[in-house]
Amino acid sequence: MKHRPTTFLATVLPPAVALIVVLAAIEAWARWTHQPAYLVPRPSTIFLALGPGGSALWNALLWTAVASLAGFAVSTIFGIFAAILLAGSKWVRRAVYPYTLFFQTVPIVAIAPLLVFWMGVGIVPVATCAFVVSVFPVIANTLSGLVSTEPALVDLFRLYGASRFASLWKLRLPAALPNIFTGLRIAAGLAVIGAVVAEFLVGTLGEHEGLGVRIVENTKYAYPDRVFAAVLLASFLGLAMFAAINFIAFFSLRRWHASQ
Amino acid sequence: MSERLLKRFDRTDRARNEQHVTPKAHFSMKDHALGLTMLPMLQKPSHHRESGLGVRIEGVRRQFENGVVALDGIDLNVASGEFLAILGPSGCGKSTLLRLIAGLDKPQGGNVFTMEASHGRADRHGLGTRADIAYVFQDAHLLPWRNVLANVALPLELMGIERKVREESALRAIEQVGLGDAADRYPNQLSGGMRMRASLARALVTEPRLLLMDEPFAALDEITRQRLDDQLRALWAALNMTVIFVTHSTIEAAFLAQRAIVLSSRPARIVEDYTLNLPAERTGSIRSSPAFARETRVLYQALERNEV
User: Is the domain A66-253 a CATH 1.10.3720.10 member?
Assistant: First the structure.
Protein backbone atom coordinates (compact mmCIF):
# COMPACT_ATOMS: atom_id res chain seq x y z
CA MET A 1 0.00 0.00 0.00
CA LYS A 2 1.33 3.38 -0.94
CA HIS A 3 1.51 5.90 1.82
CA ARG A 4 0.12 9.27 0.76
CA PRO A 5 0.51 12.33 2.91
CA THR A 6 -2.83 13.44 4.29
CA THR A 7 -3.63 16.92 3.08
CA PHE A 8 -5.16 19.59 5.25
CA LEU A 9 -8.32 19.48 3.16
CA ALA A 10 -8.66 15.70 3.55
CA THR A 11 -8.38 16.09 7.31
CA VAL A 12 -10.74 19.02 7.69
CA LEU A 13 -13.35 18.57 4.99
CA PRO A 14 -15.09 15.31 6.06
CA PRO A 15 -15.78 16.36 9.69
CA ALA A 16 -16.84 19.83 8.52
CA VAL A 17 -19.33 18.38 6.06
CA ALA A 18 -20.63 15.95 8.70
CA LEU A 19 -21.13 18.83 11.15
CA ILE A 20 -23.00 20.98 8.65
CA VAL A 21 -25.26 18.08 7.66
CA VAL A 22 -26.17 17.27 11.27
CA LEU A 23 -26.76 20.92 12.21
CA ALA A 24 -28.90 21.49 9.13
CA ALA A 25 -30.95 18.40 9.98
CA ILE A 26 -31.60 19.61 13.54
CA GLU A 27 -32.49 23.09 12.29
CA ALA A 28 -34.90 21.71 9.70
CA TRP A 29 -36.53 19.28 12.14
CA ALA A 30 -36.97 21.96 14.84
CA ARG A 31 -38.54 24.43 12.39
CA TRP A 32 -40.86 22.03 10.57
CA THR A 33 -42.20 20.39 13.74
CA HIS A 34 -42.46 23.79 15.49
CA GLN A 35 -40.42 22.82 18.56
CA PRO A 36 -40.61 25.60 21.16
CA ALA A 37 -37.35 27.59 21.16
CA TYR A 38 -36.99 27.42 24.96
CA LEU A 39 -36.83 23.61 24.70
CA VAL A 40 -34.89 23.05 21.49
CA PRO A 41 -32.69 25.95 20.47
CA ARG A 42 -32.04 26.15 16.74
CA PRO A 43 -28.39 25.83 15.76
CA SER A 44 -28.71 29.16 13.96
CA THR A 45 -29.78 30.98 17.14
CA ILE A 46 -26.90 29.40 19.04
CA PHE A 47 -24.49 30.92 16.53
CA LEU A 48 -26.32 34.23 16.69
CA ALA A 49 -25.93 34.18 20.49
CA LEU A 50 -22.19 34.37 19.88
CA GLY A 51 -22.53 37.28 17.49
CA PRO A 52 -23.10 40.95 18.33
CA GLY A 53 -24.76 41.10 21.74
CA GLY A 54 -22.92 37.97 22.85
CA SER A 55 -20.04 39.90 24.37
CA ALA A 56 -20.95 38.63 27.86
CA LEU A 57 -20.19 35.09 26.66
CA TRP A 58 -16.88 36.02 25.07
CA ASN A 59 -15.94 37.90 28.20
CA ALA A 60 -16.83 34.82 30.25
CA LEU A 61 -14.67 32.70 27.93
CA LEU A 62 -11.73 34.94 28.71
CA TRP A 63 -12.05 34.41 32.48
CA THR A 64 -12.60 30.67 32.14
CA ALA A 65 -9.57 30.51 29.89
CA VAL A 66 -7.43 32.41 32.40
CA ALA A 67 -8.51 30.16 35.27
CA SER A 68 -8.07 26.94 33.23
CA LEU A 69 -4.65 27.96 31.97
CA ALA A 70 -3.50 28.98 35.43
CA GLY A 71 -4.69 25.68 36.91
CA PHE A 72 -3.16 23.74 34.04
CA ALA A 73 0.16 25.56 34.33
CA VAL A 74 0.37 24.80 38.05
CA SER A 75 -0.58 21.17 37.31
CA THR A 76 2.21 20.92 34.76
CA ILE A 77 4.90 22.36 37.01
CA PHE A 78 3.74 20.76 40.24
CA GLY A 79 2.94 17.43 38.56
CA ILE A 80 6.33 17.08 36.90
CA PHE A 81 8.20 18.12 40.05
CA ALA A 82 6.15 15.74 42.18
CA ALA A 83 6.84 12.91 39.74
CA ILE A 84 10.59 13.66 39.83
CA LEU A 85 10.55 13.50 43.63
CA LEU A 86 8.51 10.31 43.61
CA ALA A 87 10.77 8.72 41.00
CA GLY A 88 13.85 9.63 43.04
CA SER A 89 13.20 7.22 45.85
CA LYS A 90 11.37 3.95 46.00
CA TRP A 91 10.44 4.60 49.65
CA VAL A 92 9.03 8.06 49.06
CA ARG A 93 7.09 6.60 46.17
CA ARG A 94 5.66 3.80 48.31
CA ALA A 95 4.77 6.21 51.10
CA VAL A 96 3.25 9.07 49.11
CA TYR A 97 2.05 7.83 45.73
CA PRO A 98 -1.16 6.18 47.02
CA TYR A 99 -2.28 9.56 48.35
CA THR A 100 -1.83 11.31 45.03
CA LEU A 101 -4.75 9.15 43.94
CA PHE A 102 -6.97 11.44 46.02
CA PHE A 103 -6.54 14.07 43.34
CA GLN A 104 -8.17 11.61 40.99
CA THR A 105 -10.99 10.48 43.27
CA VAL A 106 -11.87 13.64 45.17
CA PRO A 107 -15.48 14.74 44.50
CA ILE A 108 -14.63 18.18 43.20
CA VAL A 109 -18.26 19.30 43.36
CA ALA A 110 -18.18 18.84 47.11
CA ILE A 111 -14.92 20.58 47.84
CA ALA A 112 -15.31 23.52 45.49
CA PRO A 113 -17.41 25.51 48.01
CA LEU A 114 -14.76 24.76 50.66
CA LEU A 115 -12.15 26.31 48.42
CA VAL A 116 -14.10 29.58 48.65
CA PHE A 117 -14.05 29.40 52.43
CA TRP A 118 -10.30 28.98 52.32
CA MET A 119 -9.38 31.30 49.50
CA GLY A 120 -12.18 33.82 49.23
CA VAL A 121 -14.10 34.54 46.09
CA GLY A 122 -12.67 35.20 42.65
CA ILE A 123 -10.53 33.43 40.16
CA VAL A 124 -8.19 31.76 42.67
CA PRO A 125 -10.57 29.02 43.88
CA VAL A 126 -11.62 28.39 40.25
CA ALA A 127 -8.01 27.95 39.12
CA THR A 128 -7.34 25.77 42.18
CA CYS A 129 -10.23 23.56 41.19
CA ALA A 130 -8.82 23.24 37.67
CA PHE A 131 -5.47 22.29 39.21
CA VAL A 132 -6.89 19.66 41.58
CA VAL A 133 -8.79 17.97 38.77
CA SER A 134 -5.94 17.99 36.26
CA VAL A 135 -2.79 17.28 38.27
CA PHE A 136 -3.10 13.52 38.71
CA PRO A 137 -2.70 12.52 35.05
CA VAL A 138 0.46 14.65 34.89
CA ILE A 139 1.96 12.99 37.98
CA ALA A 140 0.97 9.45 36.96
CA ASN A 141 2.18 9.67 33.36
CA THR A 142 5.41 11.51 34.14
CA LEU A 143 6.20 9.02 36.90
CA SER A 144 5.60 6.03 34.68
CA GLY A 145 7.93 7.57 32.09
CA LEU A 146 10.63 8.38 34.63
CA VAL A 147 10.77 4.91 36.16
CA SER A 148 10.85 3.03 32.87
CA THR A 149 14.13 4.39 31.51
CA GLU A 150 16.07 1.81 29.52
CA PRO A 151 18.35 0.04 32.09
CA ALA A 152 21.24 -0.17 29.60
CA LEU A 153 21.19 3.62 29.23
CA VAL A 154 21.14 4.04 33.01
CA ASP A 155 24.23 1.79 33.09
CA LEU A 156 25.88 3.85 30.38
CA PHE A 157 25.40 7.06 32.35
CA ARG A 158 26.77 5.38 35.48
CA LEU A 159 29.79 4.09 33.60
CA TYR A 160 30.81 7.65 32.74
CA GLY A 161 30.15 8.91 36.24
CA ALA A 162 27.09 11.02 35.42
CA SER A 163 25.62 12.94 38.35
CA ARG A 164 22.04 12.35 39.44
CA PHE A 165 21.13 15.68 37.90
CA ALA A 166 22.79 14.83 34.58
CA SER A 167 21.00 11.46 34.50
CA LEU A 168 17.70 13.21 35.13
CA TRP A 169 18.19 16.11 32.75
CA LYS A 170 19.93 14.33 29.89
CA LEU A 171 18.36 10.89 30.10
CA ARG A 172 15.31 10.30 32.23
CA LEU A 173 13.32 13.47 31.51
CA PRO A 174 13.80 13.44 27.73
CA ALA A 175 13.04 9.71 27.69
CA ALA A 176 9.84 10.43 29.64
CA LEU A 177 8.77 13.26 27.33
CA PRO A 178 6.24 11.20 25.33
CA ASN A 179 4.59 10.12 28.60
CA ILE A 180 4.62 13.68 29.92
CA PHE A 181 2.79 14.89 26.82
CA THR A 182 0.22 12.13 27.22
CA GLY A 183 -0.42 13.39 30.76
CA LEU A 184 -0.64 17.01 29.61
CA ARG A 185 -3.15 16.16 26.87
CA ILE A 186 -5.49 14.58 29.41
CA ALA A 187 -4.87 17.37 31.91
CA ALA A 188 -5.70 20.11 29.38
CA GLY A 189 -9.28 18.91 28.90
CA LEU A 190 -9.76 18.22 32.61
CA ALA A 191 -8.55 21.69 33.61
CA VAL A 192 -11.35 23.33 31.60
CA ILE A 193 -13.94 20.98 33.09
CA GLY A 194 -12.62 21.68 36.58
CA ALA A 195 -12.80 25.42 36.03
CA VAL A 196 -16.36 25.34 34.68
CA VAL A 197 -17.53 23.13 37.56
CA ALA A 198 -16.00 25.55 40.05
CA GLU A 199 -17.68 28.50 38.36
CA PHE A 200 -21.01 26.71 38.59
CA LEU A 201 -20.64 26.60 42.33
CA VAL A 202 -18.64 29.64 43.33
CA GLY A 203 -18.13 31.86 40.31
CA THR A 204 -21.18 34.06 40.84
CA LEU A 205 -19.60 35.29 44.03
CA GLY A 206 -16.69 36.96 42.29
CA GLU A 207 -16.35 39.80 39.86
CA HIS A 208 -14.76 37.76 37.03
CA GLU A 209 -17.65 35.64 35.86
CA GLY A 210 -16.73 32.68 33.68
CA LEU A 211 -18.67 30.38 31.37
CA GLY A 212 -19.95 28.30 34.27
CA VAL A 213 -21.69 31.37 35.68
CA ARG A 214 -23.27 32.16 32.29
CA ILE A 215 -24.49 28.58 31.97
CA VAL A 216 -26.19 28.64 35.39
CA GLU A 217 -27.70 32.06 34.78
CA ASN A 218 -29.03 31.33 31.28
CA THR A 219 -30.46 27.99 32.37
CA LYS A 220 -32.33 29.79 35.13
CA TYR A 221 -33.78 32.38 32.75
CA ALA A 222 -34.47 29.82 30.01
CA TYR A 223 -32.09 30.90 27.29
CA PRO A 224 -31.02 27.46 26.06
CA ASP A 225 -29.32 28.96 23.00
CA ARG A 226 -26.95 30.92 25.24
CA VAL A 227 -26.38 27.84 27.40
CA PHE A 228 -25.41 25.85 24.32
CA ALA A 229 -23.24 28.67 23.07
CA ALA A 230 -21.40 28.75 26.42
CA VAL A 231 -20.97 24.97 26.37
CA LEU A 232 -19.63 25.25 22.85
CA LEU A 233 -17.10 27.86 23.90
CA ALA A 234 -15.96 25.75 26.86
CA SER A 235 -15.48 22.75 24.58
CA PHE A 236 -13.50 24.83 22.12
CA LEU A 237 -11.32 26.09 24.93
CA GLY A 238 -10.48 22.50 25.92
CA LEU A 239 -9.84 21.61 22.28
CA ALA A 240 -7.60 24.61 21.76
CA MET A 241 -5.50 23.67 24.80
CA PHE A 242 -5.32 20.07 23.60
CA ALA A 243 -4.25 21.25 20.14
CA ALA A 244 -1.58 23.50 21.62
CA ILE A 245 -0.10 20.56 23.54
CA ASN A 246 -0.14 18.44 20.38
CA PHE A 247 1.62 21.22 18.52
CA ILE A 248 4.39 21.46 21.12
CA ALA A 249 4.64 17.67 21.33
CA PHE A 250 4.97 17.42 17.55
CA PHE A 251 7.88 19.81 17.45
CA SER A 252 9.72 18.29 20.36
CA LEU A 253 9.23 14.64 19.42
CA ARG A 254 9.01 14.51 15.64
CA ARG A 255 12.67 13.77 15.13
CA TRP A 256 12.76 10.70 17.23
CA HIS A 257 9.49 9.35 18.53
CA ALA A 258 7.28 6.92 16.64
CA SER A 259 4.12 8.68 17.84
CA GLN A 260 4.72 11.71 15.62
CA MET B 1 40.24 17.12 34.23
CA SER B 2 42.49 19.64 32.55
CA GLU B 3 45.36 17.21 32.88
CA ARG B 4 43.34 14.72 30.96
CA LEU B 5 42.56 17.25 28.27
CA LEU B 6 46.22 18.03 27.84
CA LYS B 7 46.92 14.37 27.46
CA ARG B 8 44.32 14.09 24.75
CA PHE B 9 45.77 16.97 22.79
CA ASP B 10 49.29 15.75 23.32
CA ARG B 11 48.33 12.32 22.11
CA THR B 12 46.82 13.61 18.92
CA ASP B 13 49.72 15.88 18.12
CA ARG B 14 52.23 13.16 18.70
CA ALA B 15 50.27 10.81 16.49
CA ARG B 16 50.22 13.44 13.76
CA ASN B 17 53.98 13.88 13.94
CA GLU B 18 54.60 10.20 13.89
CA GLN B 19 52.65 9.82 10.74
CA HIS B 20 55.59 11.01 8.70
CA VAL B 21 58.19 8.90 10.42
CA THR B 22 56.76 5.63 11.61
CA PRO B 23 55.31 3.15 9.17
CA LYS B 24 51.85 2.40 10.48
CA ALA B 25 50.29 -0.95 11.14
CA HIS B 26 49.41 -2.72 7.91
CA PHE B 27 46.00 -2.28 6.46
CA SER B 28 44.91 -4.12 3.40
CA MET B 29 42.93 -2.49 0.62
CA LYS B 30 39.96 -4.39 1.93
CA ASP B 31 40.03 -2.37 5.09
CA HIS B 32 39.82 0.77 2.98
CA ALA B 33 36.84 -0.56 1.17
CA LEU B 34 35.15 -1.09 4.49
CA GLY B 35 35.32 2.56 5.31
CA LEU B 36 38.35 2.51 7.55
CA THR B 37 40.04 5.84 7.13
CA MET B 38 43.69 6.41 7.84
CA LEU B 39 43.43 8.95 10.59
CA PRO B 40 46.06 10.01 13.07
CA MET B 41 44.13 8.30 15.82
CA LEU B 42 44.68 4.93 14.19
CA GLN B 43 48.38 5.19 14.88
CA LYS B 44 49.54 2.71 17.41
CA PRO B 45 50.39 4.77 20.49
CA SER B 46 53.64 3.83 22.15
CA HIS B 47 53.31 5.53 25.51
CA HIS B 48 52.76 3.11 28.39
CA ARG B 49 49.75 5.07 29.71
CA GLU B 50 47.92 4.11 26.58
CA SER B 51 48.40 0.36 26.78
CA GLY B 52 45.35 -1.79 27.37
CA LEU B 53 44.09 -2.48 30.87
CA GLY B 54 44.54 -6.00 32.16
CA VAL B 55 41.84 -7.67 34.24
CA ARG B 56 42.24 -10.05 37.16
CA ILE B 57 39.24 -11.87 38.55
CA GLU B 58 39.62 -13.97 41.68
CA GLY B 59 36.99 -16.40 42.91
CA VAL B 60 34.07 -14.22 41.92
CA ARG B 61 30.56 -15.21 42.94
CA ARG B 62 27.35 -13.44 42.06
CA GLN B 63 23.96 -14.51 43.32
CA PHE B 64 20.81 -12.64 42.38
CA GLU B 65 18.07 -11.59 44.78
CA ASN B 66 15.88 -14.45 43.57
CA GLY B 67 18.49 -16.97 44.72
CA VAL B 68 19.85 -17.85 41.29
CA VAL B 69 23.65 -18.19 41.34
CA ALA B 70 24.87 -16.62 38.10
CA LEU B 71 28.60 -17.00 38.65
CA ASP B 72 30.56 -19.10 41.07
CA GLY B 73 34.29 -19.48 41.58
CA ILE B 74 35.36 -17.58 38.49
CA ASP B 75 39.11 -17.04 38.17
CA LEU B 76 40.31 -15.23 35.11
CA ASN B 77 43.33 -13.25 34.00
CA VAL B 78 43.12 -11.09 30.93
CA ALA B 79 46.46 -9.69 29.81
CA SER B 80 46.90 -6.09 28.82
CA GLY B 81 46.04 -5.66 25.17
CA GLU B 82 44.50 -9.09 24.82
CA PHE B 83 41.42 -9.87 22.71
CA LEU B 84 39.36 -12.36 24.70
CA ALA B 85 36.12 -13.95 23.55
CA ILE B 86 33.64 -15.36 26.06
CA LEU B 87 31.40 -18.12 24.75
CA GLY B 88 28.65 -19.95 26.57
CA PRO B 89 25.02 -21.04 26.48
CA SER B 90 22.26 -18.44 26.65
CA GLY B 91 21.61 -16.98 30.07
CA CYS B 92 24.73 -18.53 31.59
CA GLY B 93 25.98 -15.33 33.16
CA LYS B 94 28.25 -13.96 30.45
CA SER B 95 26.64 -10.53 30.67
CA THR B 96 26.80 -10.61 34.46
CA LEU B 97 30.54 -11.23 34.27
CA LEU B 98 30.94 -8.30 31.90
CA ARG B 99 28.92 -6.00 34.17
CA LEU B 100 31.13 -7.00 37.11
CA ILE B 101 34.25 -6.15 35.14
CA ALA B 102 32.74 -2.80 34.16
CA GLY B 103 32.01 -2.05 37.82
CA LEU B 104 28.29 -1.78 37.08
CA ASP B 105 27.57 -4.63 39.46
CA LYS B 106 29.22 -5.93 42.62
CA PRO B 107 30.20 -9.54 43.34
CA GLN B 108 29.16 -11.20 46.63
CA GLY B 109 32.50 -12.92 46.86
CA GLY B 110 35.92 -12.58 45.28
CA ASN B 111 37.56 -9.61 43.63
CA VAL B 112 37.67 -7.89 40.28
CA PHE B 113 40.77 -5.83 39.52
CA THR B 114 41.79 -3.85 36.50
CA MET B 115 45.55 -3.56 36.10
CA GLU B 116 48.11 -1.22 34.68
CA ALA B 117 50.32 -3.14 32.30
CA SER B 118 53.55 -1.31 33.03
CA HIS B 119 53.85 -1.59 36.77
CA GLY B 120 51.47 -4.47 37.27
CA ARG B 121 49.79 -2.62 40.12
CA ALA B 122 46.22 -3.68 40.61
CA ASP B 123 43.63 -0.94 41.03
CA ARG B 124 40.29 -1.49 42.60
CA HIS B 125 37.37 -0.19 40.64
CA GLY B 126 36.60 3.44 41.09
CA LEU B 127 40.19 4.61 41.48
CA GLY B 128 41.16 5.07 37.86
CA THR B 129 39.36 7.39 35.47
CA ARG B 130 36.23 5.54 34.63
CA ALA B 131 36.47 6.33 30.96
CA ASP B 132 39.29 3.81 30.82
CA ILE B 133 36.47 1.33 30.41
CA ALA B 134 33.86 1.38 27.65
CA TYR B 135 30.88 -0.89 27.20
CA VAL B 136 28.98 -1.83 24.08
CA PHE B 137 25.56 -3.36 24.59
CA GLN B 138 23.67 -5.96 22.61
CA ASP B 139 21.53 -3.23 21.06
CA ALA B 140 22.95 0.10 20.01
CA HIS B 141 21.09 1.96 22.79
CA LEU B 142 21.57 5.41 21.36
CA LEU B 143 19.61 8.35 22.73
CA PRO B 144 16.89 8.70 20.08
CA TRP B 145 16.57 12.48 20.59
CA ARG B 146 20.21 13.13 19.78
CA ASN B 147 21.93 12.91 16.43
CA VAL B 148 24.94 10.67 15.91
CA LEU B 149 27.44 13.40 16.77
CA ALA B 150 25.74 14.28 20.07
CA ASN B 151 25.33 10.59 20.91
CA VAL B 152 28.98 9.84 20.32
CA ALA B 153 30.05 12.93 22.26
CA LEU B 154 27.86 11.93 25.24
CA PRO B 155 30.54 10.12 27.31
CA LEU B 156 32.86 13.14 27.08
CA GLU B 157 29.95 15.46 27.88
CA LEU B 158 29.18 13.46 31.03
CA MET B 159 32.85 13.66 31.98
CA GLY B 160 32.59 17.45 31.79
CA ILE B 161 34.72 18.04 28.73
CA GLU B 162 34.00 21.25 26.85
CA ARG B 163 31.90 21.18 23.70
CA LYS B 164 34.54 22.03 21.11
CA VAL B 165 36.96 19.37 22.32
CA ARG B 166 34.35 16.67 22.72
CA GLU B 167 32.86 17.30 19.29
CA GLU B 168 36.28 17.07 17.66
CA SER B 169 36.90 13.75 19.40
CA ALA B 170 33.42 12.54 18.50
CA LEU B 171 33.93 13.38 14.82
CA ARG B 172 37.18 11.44 14.85
CA ALA B 173 35.52 8.41 16.41
CA ILE B 174 32.67 8.65 13.89
CA GLU B 175 35.19 8.69 11.03
CA GLN B 176 36.93 5.69 12.57
CA VAL B 177 33.85 3.50 12.34
CA GLY B 178 33.06 4.72 8.82
CA LEU B 179 30.01 6.84 9.65
CA GLY B 180 31.56 10.12 8.54
CA ASP B 181 28.62 11.25 6.40
CA ALA B 182 25.94 10.40 8.97
CA ALA B 183 27.10 12.54 11.89
CA ASP B 184 24.02 14.77 11.83
CA ARG B 185 21.48 12.01 11.35
CA TYR B 186 19.16 10.76 14.06
CA PRO B 187 19.13 7.12 15.17
CA ASN B 188 15.76 6.41 13.53
CA GLN B 189 17.26 7.46 10.20
CA LEU B 190 19.99 4.81 10.43
CA SER B 191 20.09 1.11 9.57
CA GLY B 192 20.76 -1.42 12.30
CA GLY B 193 24.38 -1.73 11.22
CA MET B 194 24.90 2.04 11.23
CA ARG B 195 23.34 2.33 14.67
CA MET B 196 25.77 -0.29 15.95
CA ARG B 197 28.67 1.62 14.38
CA ALA B 198 27.52 4.76 16.15
CA SER B 199 27.36 2.79 19.39
CA LEU B 200 30.91 1.55 18.78
CA ALA B 201 32.07 5.10 18.08
CA ARG B 202 30.49 6.22 21.38
CA ALA B 203 32.55 3.53 23.15
CA LEU B 204 35.75 4.53 21.35
CA VAL B 205 35.41 8.27 21.91
CA THR B 206 37.04 8.15 25.35
CA GLU B 207 39.94 6.15 23.90
CA PRO B 208 39.21 3.32 26.30
CA ARG B 209 41.90 0.93 27.44
CA LEU B 210 39.40 -1.82 28.11
CA LEU B 211 36.49 -2.36 25.74
CA LEU B 212 33.71 -4.64 26.96
CA MET B 213 31.29 -5.89 24.33
CA ASP B 214 28.15 -7.85 25.10
CA GLU B 215 27.06 -9.68 21.93
CA PRO B 216 27.18 -6.37 20.11
CA PHE B 217 26.53 -7.59 16.58
CA ALA B 218 24.19 -10.48 17.38
CA ALA B 219 21.10 -8.76 15.99
CA LEU B 220 22.69 -7.84 12.65
CA ASP B 221 22.57 -9.69 9.37
CA GLU B 222 25.52 -11.91 8.48
CA ILE B 223 27.22 -9.57 6.01
CA THR B 224 26.96 -6.47 8.17
CA ARG B 225 28.19 -8.48 11.10
CA GLN B 226 31.26 -9.74 9.26
CA ARG B 227 32.08 -6.21 8.14
CA LEU B 228 31.87 -4.92 11.68
CA ASP B 229 33.97 -7.85 12.89
CA ASP B 230 36.63 -7.01 10.29
CA GLN B 231 36.57 -3.40 11.37
CA LEU B 232 36.67 -4.17 15.08
CA ARG B 233 39.66 -6.43 14.62
CA ALA B 234 41.50 -3.68 12.71
CA LEU B 235 40.59 -1.08 15.35
CA TRP B 236 41.83 -3.35 18.10
CA ALA B 237 45.13 -3.87 16.28
CA ALA B 238 45.50 -0.10 15.87
CA LEU B 239 44.22 1.28 19.15
CA ASN B 240 46.10 -0.86 21.63
CA MET B 241 43.23 -1.73 23.94
CA THR B 242 42.10 -4.84 25.74
CA VAL B 243 38.84 -6.23 24.35
CA ILE B 244 36.53 -8.67 26.10
CA PHE B 245 33.87 -9.81 23.67
CA VAL B 246 30.85 -11.91 24.62
CA THR B 247 29.33 -13.84 21.73
CA HIS B 248 27.22 -16.85 20.80
CA SER B 249 29.07 -17.36 17.58
CA THR B 250 32.13 -19.60 17.41
CA ILE B 251 32.92 -18.15 13.98
CA GLU B 252 32.94 -14.63 15.34
CA ALA B 253 35.04 -15.69 18.35
CA ALA B 254 37.58 -17.49 16.16
CA PHE B 255 37.91 -14.55 13.80
CA LEU B 256 38.24 -11.86 16.43
CA ALA B 257 39.93 -13.27 19.47
CA GLN B 258 43.39 -14.39 20.47
CA ARG B 259 41.93 -16.47 23.23
CA ALA B 260 38.47 -17.80 24.00
CA ILE B 261 36.93 -19.07 27.21
CA VAL B 262 33.79 -21.19 27.37
CA LEU B 263 31.41 -20.89 30.30
CA SER B 264 29.11 -23.65 31.55
CA SER B 265 25.42 -23.12 32.23
CA ARG B 266 24.39 -21.74 35.59
CA PRO B 267 26.18 -21.31 37.81
CA ALA B 268 28.75 -20.32 35.22
CA ARG B 269 32.27 -21.66 35.50
CA ILE B 270 35.11 -21.49 33.05
CA VAL B 271 35.18 -24.96 31.49
CA GLU B 272 37.50 -24.25 28.61
CA ASP B 273 40.32 -21.77 28.13
CA TYR B 274 41.67 -21.95 24.61
CA THR B 275 44.34 -19.91 22.86
CA LEU B 276 43.51 -19.67 19.18
CA ASN B 277 46.12 -20.91 16.81
CA LEU B 278 45.67 -18.38 14.00
CA PRO B 279 47.94 -15.71 12.50
CA ALA B 280 47.87 -12.30 14.14
CA GLU B 281 47.21 -10.63 10.82
CA ARG B 282 43.57 -11.37 10.10
CA THR B 283 41.47 -10.05 7.27
CA GLY B 284 38.11 -11.22 5.98
CA SER B 285 39.75 -13.81 3.72
CA ILE B 286 40.94 -15.86 6.67
CA ARG B 287 37.38 -17.10 7.17
CA SER B 288 37.72 -19.49 4.24
CA SER B 289 41.07 -20.98 5.32
CA PRO B 290 41.36 -24.58 6.64
CA ALA B 291 43.05 -23.38 9.83
CA PHE B 292 40.07 -21.14 10.56
CA ALA B 293 37.65 -24.03 10.04
CA ARG B 294 39.72 -26.14 12.42
CA GLU B 295 39.75 -23.51 15.18
CA THR B 296 36.04 -22.86 14.81
CA ARG B 297 35.40 -26.57 15.19
CA VAL B 298 37.48 -26.75 18.36
CA LEU B 299 35.43 -23.93 19.89
CA TYR B 300 32.18 -25.46 18.70
CA GLN B 301 33.02 -28.82 20.25
CA ALA B 302 34.00 -27.19 23.52
CA LEU B 303 30.68 -25.35 23.55
CA GLU B 304 28.75 -28.51 22.66
CA ARG B 305 30.42 -30.58 25.39
CA ASN B 306 29.13 -28.18 27.98
CA GLU B 307 25.72 -27.45 26.60
CA VAL B 308 23.62 -29.92 28.53
Answer: yes
B interface with A, Cβ–Cβ below 8 Å:
99, 102-104, 130-131, 133-135, 137, 139, 141, 143-145, 154-155, 157-159, 186-188, 206
d(CA A60, CA A56): 6
- Chain B: give the shortest CA distance to residue A153, in Å: 7
Question: In sequence order, what DSSP letters do the residues of B141-174 get, joined into one string?
Answer: ---TTS-HHHHHHHHHHHTT--HHHHHHHHHHHH
Could you give the CA distance from residue B134 to residue A239 in angstroms, rounded to a whole number?
48
What distance in Å separates residue A159's CA from the closest CA in chain B?
7
B53-142+208-305 belongs to CATH 3.30.530.20: no
- Looking at residue A206, what is its pLDDT? 63
Nearest alpha carbon to residue A67 among A114, A132, A136, A139 = A132
> What is the mean pLDDT of the segment spanning A129-148?
94
Which residue ranges of chain B lie beneath pLDDT 70?
1-50, 116-130, 307-308
CA distance A93 to chain B (A): 21
Give residues 158 to 217 of A whose Cβ lies within 8 Å of B.
Answer: 158-162, 166, 170-171, 174, 177
CB atoms within 10 A of CB A32: 8
Residues of B in contact with A259 (CB under 8 A): none
Q: Which residues of B203-239 are buried (b: 16+ CB within 10 A; e: fewer)?
A: bbbbbbbbbbbbbbbeebeeebbbbbbbbbbbbbbbb
Do residue A174 and residue B145 have CB atoms under 8 angstroms apart?
yes
